[in-house]
Amino acid sequence: MAAEEKLPAWNEIPPGGIIIEPGNAEERYTGDWRVFRPVINQDKCIRCLLCWVYCPDSVFHIVDEEYVTSKGRKYSFSLKIDYDHCKGCGICVEECPVNAIDFVEEVK
Amino acid sequence: MAVTVQEAKVTWKRLPLSSNYAAAYAVKDLDVDVIAAYPITPQTTVVEKIAEFIANGELNAEMIHVESEHSALSATIAASAAGARAFTATASQGLELMHEILHIASGLRLPVVMSIATRALSAPISIWNDYSDLMNTRDTSWITLIASSAQEVYDSIVQAYRIAEDPEVMLPVMVAYDGYLMSHTYEPVLVPEDNKPILDYAPKNYNRIKLDPERPISMGTLTGPEWYYEFKYQQVVAMKKALEKARKADEEFKARFGRGYGLIETFNVEDADVVIVAYGGLYGTVIEAIEPLVEKGVKVGAMRLRLWRPFPVEDVKKALGNAKLVTVIDKAISYGARIAGPVALEVMSSFYHDEAKPMIMSVIAGIGQRRITEDTIREIVDYSFKVLGRGRAPEESLYWGVRGVRYE
Amino acid sequence: MRFEIRWHGRGGQGAVTAAMILAEAAIFEGKYAQAFPEFGAERRGAPVRAYTRVSDKPILTRAPITRPDVVVVLDSSLPKELYLAGLKEGGLILVNTKKTAGEFAESTGIDTSKYRLYTVDATRIALEILGVPIVNTAMVGALVKVLPIVSLENVEKAIMETFPGRLGEKNVKAVRAAYEAVAAESVVAR
Questions:
Q1: Contact yes or no, A with C (3+ CB pairs under 8 Å)
Q2: Is C62:B184 a contact under the CB 8 Å cutoff?
Q3: Contacts of residue C18, Cβ cutoff 8 Å, sequence gap at least 6
Q4: A chain contacts of residue B214, beta-carbon cutoff 8 Å
Q5: Tens-place pLDDT, residues C117-173
Q6: Does C28 touch chain B (CB under 8 A)?
Q7: Which stretches of chain C are assigned E, i.e. beta strand?
């Protein structure tokens, strides 16, 4: 109950459950919901971005980092996961066409 | 056109209109932006008339054709969420199909206005009037006005936008009236030559929270147990405020246009032992039935409930406080309740905490438009005096006029 | 003074529109009026009732008219019990028939010592002028002749509002024809 008492009163919040500041889901830390953590194998990754498309929480970020695979293939960007908001649903692991995302048990 | 009447600064046309057409004229004069509706008897001619106004260029609005009432109110809500002044109309099964969306309109705090030509519910099918459809919406957090003349339908829809769009209210409003007995009855209605005074009275509130790509917001969010209750309490407070806002809206309407109704209307209540409470078009029949009795010295009066939600407790108590017996005629049944009249229940609860209070009798009548004439009303008055003589009101609602049921 | 008029016809003859036109005309005249049908799932040929109240004062009641001052019968084949029900003594009956009032009273047994009976051949007028047996406007024309509660001019105005253009003009013609005919053809049997 202690945490609840800190929440704003009925007359301190916008009407109708309307969220007037857009994109505020970012303020909510959901990174501790995971049991398994998706980890990108940058070497196997073919940069198809299907993970970026499928992720329900938009945690895949395209970063300006060149990457050269062990076989010498050069990519102009890399993918990073926002672990503060990844809930570990595993959809990316399922959808990755080249099995480049490992699902590793969190150490809690 | 017709005879013109000069009142305040407004020039009025006196037109023969049904209550449905009066609703359509109000929508036109309020310059409503979006209308979405689905045809259902006896509401249909409201929207047909609006469509005619749009086709003639008399109203610049978007008419959205939908495939059901569920969609009609959904589209109306979407338009209102985007900031438009939006309107819909329905009746009976249509209102039932809208039911879940009724809660969404009020929960999202959207100032939608809807007219209801009240009608009985299936099954068995009845296209005729009673108030079963409206009374089922009691707990949907819609402000609800019940009109008793075509003029009042026009005036109430104008007042409805003013109340709904008030920043301290922001709740949807229903304006109800008798299906057929009013929706299809032609009578004189004053409408303004020019709608400017109407818009001056009820200016559009575009300066509210709305969906706007320039300033994005989220509507229709999921709220957990730690948030939901507060939003519902906001509606409780808004409803409370709506009572005084509705009163003020009517008072200012009267000051500007010379016509006002109050939250309730009364006839001879000061001097009455028995007061008949009614709503909608029935009130007029009640008045004509009891006028000759009052002239003969019978101590009978009448009260009409105009604002159903929020319920004007203090006004009702003031009006009925002198009576010895109050007979509430309801045109709807709350099945399984001993007192099955929704308004009767509300009147009773208003007096619950008081030591001195009138006896209250609940009468159900006019179900599925079972005929109520002046004679029916006088029979109910006679019976009320009989009950008064006995000193105890029946503990159960009386089902007046059902074949095979008699009350001694 | 209030007049309560009950219209009796069959679905398709226009009794509801007749009730409305008379009320509209009264409202244009500055009076109070009310018109409404006896609402049913109307179908062609079924008996239909409609009501008009006209008054100098506001009309509050919305009850159907059970004790009319006037009954207008658009179809003479309707049983007389239907339209005589509740008619006030001294009340007015206007019937669409080829018969004179005397003949009609004789064939139906209507007691002309109790009621004022008028007849008009509105079907003939409608067929001649409109080409269809829709007698409502003609019956309004005949009614305002025998019960001058609204002017012919306002009846014509109400008709032009209801049926704009050529159809309205034809109906106005039918109104005038019946207005003239009812005087010539009917007998006030007392």
A1: no
A2: no
A3: C7, C9, C50, C72, C74, C136, C137, C139, C140
A4: none
A5: 999 999 999 999 999 999 999 999 999 999 999 999 999 999 999 899 999 999 999
A6: yes
A7: 2-10, 32-37, 47-55, 70-73, 92-96, 116-120
Quick: pLDDT tens for B322-367. 999 999 999 999 999 999 999 999 999 999 999 999 999 999 999 9
Chain centre to alpha carbon of residue B198 = 20
What six digits make up the tokens of A28? 């909510």
Most A-contacting residue of B110, B231, B236 (CB-CB within 10 A), to test interface: B231
| B147 part of contact set with chain C, CB < 8 Å | no
Query: How far is CA B331 from each of CA A22, B277, B278, B308, rounded to the nearest angstrom?
Result: 47, 12, 9, 14
In this prediction the pTM is: 0.92
C162, part of any domain: yes
B125 at interface of C, judged by CB pairs closer than 8 A: no
C163 in contact with B at a CB cutoff of 8 Å?
no
Domains contained in chain A, CATH given: 29-105 (3.30.70.20)
Q: What is the DSSP string of C39-68?
A: -----TTSEEEEEEEEESS-----S--SS-
Chain B, 38 to 67: residues with Cβ < 8 Å from chain C are 42
Q: Which domains does chain B have, with CATH numbers?
A: 4-257 (3.40.50.970), 264-399 (3.40.50.920)
* Pair type for strands C116-120 and C92-96: parallel
- Between CA C155 and CA C21 the distance in angstroms is 7
β B143-146/B62-65 pair status: unpaired
The complex scores an ipTM of 0.92
pLDDT at B206 > cutoff 50: yes
* Number of domains comprising chain C: 1
Tell which B residues from 149 to 178 touch C, by Cβ distance under 8 Å: 178
- CB < 8 Å & 24+ apart, contacts of A33-37: A33/A87, A33/A88, A34/A86, A34/A87, A34/A88, A34/A106, A35/A88, A35/A105, A35/A106, A36/A88, A36/A90, A36/A103, A36/A104, A36/A105, A36/A106, A37/A83, A37/A86, A37/A88, A37/A103, A37/A104, A37/A105, A37/A106
Read off the CATH number of the domain in which C88 is found. Answer: 3.40.920.10
C13-65, pLDDT tens digit by residue?
Answer: 899 999 999 999 999 999 999 999 986 656 677 888 999 999 999 999 999 99
Average pLDDT of every residue of chain B: 96
Tokens representing B387 are 């009950």
CB contact under 8 A, A10 and B237: yes
Q: How many CA atoms lie within 13 A of B353 on its CB side?
A: 4
